Each structure stands twice: as structure tokens, then as C-alpha cells.
Fold this sequence. Notes:
Blueprint: H1 7-13, H2 29-42, H3 56-68, H4 71-80, E1 87-97, H5 99-102, E2 113-115, E3 118-128, E4 133-140, H6 149-152, E5 160-162, H7 170-178, E6 182-184, H8 199-202, H9 206-215, H10 219-222, E7 223-224, H11 229-248, E8 256-261, E9 264-269
Helix pairs in contact: 1-11, 2-3, 4-11
Amino acid sequence: MRYEFADYEWTAIKPMLPNKPRGVPRVNDRRVLNGIFWVLRSGAPWRDLPTAFGPYTTCYNRFVRWRRAGVWGRIIEALATAHNAAVQMIDTSIVRVHQHGACITRNQCQSMGRSRGGLTSKIHAVVDGNGLPVRLALSPSEAHDVRLAGKLLSLKSGSMLLADRGYDADWIRELATKKRAWANIPPKSNRSDPICFSPYHYRARNQVERFFNRIKQCRRVATRYDRLAANYLAFVHSHQSGYGCALMSPRPSSRRHRVSVMGCDETIWNDGCRSRSMPTRCAYIAPGY
Length: 289
């Protein structure tokens, strides 16, 4: 069936899942995880889950239980420990809230904002030079892009920050200077003092745009159907958990092959590159997390 984990992908993600040695044996984790990612990729309601994945209540309860236990967040943190710290990119993307997810009191508490198109939410993402997430957050759509930048950024000495003009703020540049990093951000038209900006290095910022394009291939992420912000953000975390673990998994013997991560096909080269057209070639994560 579509969107199921391959054997090598399951080998990489299995050690990161919680293991309960005592009590009643749980339902097969692989079957439940395949059901969760089927809902994530197809965007269908939980009640429409095919019977091949078992009862939909089992998949939903396991998804919520792992979200409350922080399983998805720990997998993202484990992948982030091996990220390329030389470059960090930050950006946001807005998603439309479906009417099924909007019928909740006090939408402001669930990171829903109102714009011309109705209720929307904004995803804040910090990725490394390979387009893999370092930190993710959710906010109402009317919130400014820089509102969560201070909490998400984790710059190190000698690193470079890439962002668009929306992040051209003095306090962000001062934060990068304190960390001995370089904020390579294009200046706004109203900035009077000259700054150091490299258009050549700025071209690599397309990695964060590719990140949003990749996660929005999942319909459950492209449109928000979840009333709770924690559940929606857990879907984003789960997608990147499967995608990152797929990159960590052993490669087939061919020099070039195609892998499908939850329906997202991509070319993988044996030297660790996802594509020859990418500006950074070290897209492989060493399994030393």
C-alpha cells in the first residue's frame, strides 16, 4: 500500500520509538506507524483509515500518546544534533485552517489567526544547510515573522544566518554578533547604514523554501484539519522524523536510486547527496546521534 515504510526506513526509525517491555504486548508499531503516515500523506479523516492498518482508534490514540510523551519532538532533537551547524536558515509559511479544525472556542489559544482568507496558522522553521529542520514552532498568521526568531535560533561561533528581508531587524543582527555569527540578510529599502551582505551565499536560502515545499506535499500539513495546535505540529514533526530517518538508513548498492518517503520521491546518490543541483552536497546524516 502507498505511504508505507520500506524495510530500511523502518530499521532506522525503530530504535527511536518507545519500548515497553512490561504489560500487555502492544499492537505492531510498524503497522500503526504506517497508518499514521497514511493519514498524514492522504489528509483523510481518521475514521477513513483502511482496515489493513487496524482500528483507527488505535492509530489515533498511539499518535496522541506519543505526542504527549514527546516522542516526535525527541526524534527531531536527535536528528538536529547531527545537523550542519555552519549555516542556519529561518523562514515562515502560512497554512489555511479547514472549517473542521476551526470550530473551537478561543482559537487564539490554538495558534489560529484571521486574515483575508479566513483562519490561518503560520509555521516557523529553522533548518540547516541541508534543509533538515532544527527547530519548529507554530503561531497565529498575523504574528510577525521575527516574533519567535529569538527562541528558535541557536547560532554558534562562525556560523551564518540566512533569512529574507522580513528578518532585517537590528536586534537579530546584534544577536548574531554576540554569538560571533554572520547574519547574511538583505537590507530593507529604508535602512540607511551600510551592512555586509553576500548575494552569492544568499542563494543557498532556497533550502528552507524546499523544506516547506516538501512538508506541504502531505495534505494533513498543507491544510490544517486539527483543532489542537499540538496535534498539527506533531504531524509536521512526524513527517520530518520519517524523512530524516530515511536519509539515515542504509542505501541500496546502486550508485543512483529513487527513494519514496511517504509518497515524496527524491533522487539519492551514494555519496549522500539528494540532488546534483543542490548547492550543498553533504545531505547525509551520520547515524551517530
